[in-house]
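Input/output pair, single chain:
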Amino acid sequence: MRSTRSPQRPWIFDPSAAYIGSLVYLALSAPSLAFLFYYGLARRRGYPAAAYVSALTPVLAMTVSSVFEGKSWGPMALGGIVLVLCGQWLLLLARRA
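Output:
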């Protein structure tokens, strides 16, 4: 059986100012923006809607990775997606009841 994994490349830390600066920028800006968006959504639509979005974020990230990077997923990852989607479906059913 052929493996779908790509070969591992070692992680290399580049001590240049541009590399460190971009790493610090991403480490500070992305979580800050995510925090602001999440709590903005929670204030406007309520915490259940924000939790719904939080649960679907990994599924969206995996889909984007598949489309743009050609990533293929194994049975465990696909099973996780099915469980997340089933959980969201059950939440939507519970809201209607």
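The mean pLDDT is 85. Helices lie at 17-45, 47-69, 75-96.
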